[in-house]
Amino acid sequence: MTGVTSQPSRSVFGAILLKKVDAKWIKIWETKTKAVGLQYSGIADITGDGIKEYLFGTTIGASARHNLDIYEWNKNTFSKISDVLYHKLELLNNKNIGIAVWQRYIADTIL
C-alpha cells in the first residue's frame, strides 16, 4: 500500500525510583503510561522551592500532542502535581527555572 502511513503502536513507558538499603535496592516509586514514545525525562526545580521536580513527557501519537506529567517530592515519594498537553517544550533557565510549552493551532502554526 503506497502513500499510507501507519500509526506507531503503543508501548508502556515508565520510570522507577530506587533506594539502596544496606546491599539491596528497594523500589520506592514507579509511574507507567501507554504511549508511542518517550519525549522528555528530567528533573528541574520549576516551583522555586529549592526541591527539584521530576518531569516525564511521552508522545501520545505520531502527530498528536505530547503529555508532560510533573511530580513533586513529598513525604519520601513523588506525587503528581500537574499534567500538560503540548507540542513543543522548553525548560527556561534565566534567574528562575520555568517551562514554556507550545500548542499546535492550525497545521504547522504553533502558539
Largest sheet: 4 strands, antiparallel
Question: What order do the helices and strands follow?
Answer: EEEEEEEEEE
Overall pLDDT confidence: 83
Order of strands across the widest beta sheet?
3-4-5-6
Given helix and strand content, the structural type is mainly beta
Query: Approximately what portion of the residues adopt beta-strand conformation?
Result: over 45%
CA-to-CA gap between the ends? 35 Å
Assign a percent range to the helix content.
under 10%
How many helix segments?
A: 0
- How would you classify the quaternary structure? single chain
Q: Uncertain segments of ≥5 residues (pLDDT<50)? A: none
Total strands: 10
Shape: flat
Describe this structure in words.
By secondary structure, this protein is mainly β. The chain has one domain (33-110). 0% of the residues lie in helices and 67% in strands. The protein has no helices and ten strands. It has strands spanning 11-21, 24-35, 37-44, 53-59, 66-74, 77-86, 88-93, 97-102, 104-106, 109-110. The strands form four sheets. The protein has a four-stranded antiparallel sheet, with no helix packed on it. A two-stranded antiparallel sheet has the order 1-2. Strands 7-8 form a two-stranded antiparallel sheet. A hairpin with a 3-residue loop joins strand 7 (88-93) and strand 8 (97-102). The protein is flat. The mean pLDDT is 83.
